[in-house]
Amino acid sequence: MNVAVRSNCFDASALLKLYMPEEGSEILHEYWRREPTKFTTSFCFYEMLSMLKVHHFYKKTIDLETYKKATLDLCSWFATVSESIRELPFLSPEVFLVLRRKQNCINWICLMPFNS
User: What domains sit in the chain, N to C, each tagged with a CATH number?
Assistant: First the structure.
């Protein structure tokens, strides 16, 4: 029997809920624990590191131990998952051209009247 596995991509705001107690944190913790396949993009990873830095050094909403534990945990997790998942080369000109064509196609479809 074949079983499909769902991949879960987390953005920086979702990842922050793993380390900062805020609205929705407990729901995310439960989801994180039960889902086997989790990843994020390198953009979200670096954004998350910046958000942790801001919360510790500027907003003073997390102490040094929490900051160090969160950054170590995040870096360890990302190093592990990024080994097995090939990321889309966002900075490649070819990728931008393909995405632009797809976006133009979507825009054209959305502008079509329903009765044509």
Answer: 8-88 (3.40.50.1010)
